[in-house]
Amino acid sequence: MERSTSRRDFLHATGLGGLAAGLGVASAVHVRPAHATPAAMHDAVRQVVGTARVTPGRVKLDLPPLSENGNTVPLTVTVESPMTEADHVRVIHVFTEKNPRPDVVAFHIGPRAGRANISTRIRLADTQTVTAIAQLSDGSFWSGSANVVVTLAACLEDAP
After folding, report:
1. Rounded distance, CA 121 to CA 124, Å?
2. What are the mean pLDDT values of the chain's consecutive 10-residue runs (160 residues total)?
3. Total-model pTM
4. Cα-only R_g, the chain
5. What residues does each domain of the chain span?
6. Rounded to whole angstroms, how far apart are CA atoms 108 and 121?
7. DSSP for the chain?
8. Which of 10, 47, 104, 146 lies in disulfide reach of 94, CB 3.0 to 4.6 Å?
């Protein structure tokens, strides 16, 4: 006995066929890794500070000099500041020179924080320099940097 194809069966079959074809096309597209450069980091810093001078000092980065896995690198940034109403840290920016996005994070803090100290984990695409820039309440910018050797990179966009 021959069964007739219902409209629902037909749409279901052609929809799955179209989906399979679409997935085949999508899997054939090669995704290239995002390549960041120190120049991209410099541009990201300029977007934050404008034409203001960034003075080295007062900012300390604590992160391992060697990280076996770039997917989760511990980072602590400390800024020397009395954290009073008149003299405090407003924002701590973290930048990397080889991640797809050089502006990693910005922490907005104020005098009620008590200390200018933040801790987090970041992803690093490769061995690189990490820079933190603190904007103080007087409008000045201070910076610190640290180098990190990464043995297993993160942030890769061409993973199978």
Report:
1. 10
2. 63 58 48 68 95 97 94 96 96 95 95 95 93 97 97 64
3. 0.74
4. 24
5. 38-150
6. 17
7. -PPPPPHHHHHHHHHHHHHHHHHHHHHHSPPPPP---HHHHHHHHHHHHTT--EEE-SEEEE--SEES-TTSEEEEEEE-----SSS-EEEEEEEESSSSSSEEEEEE--GGGSS-EEEEEE--SSSEEEEEEEEETTS-EEEEEEEEEESS----S---
8. 104
pLDDT of amino acid 14:
64
Listed residue (98, 94, 93) closest to 39, CA to CA: 98
d(CA 9, CA 139): 67
The first and second tokens of residue 148, run together, are 């990190």
Residue pLDDT, tens place only, 15-35: 655 555 555 544 444 444 456
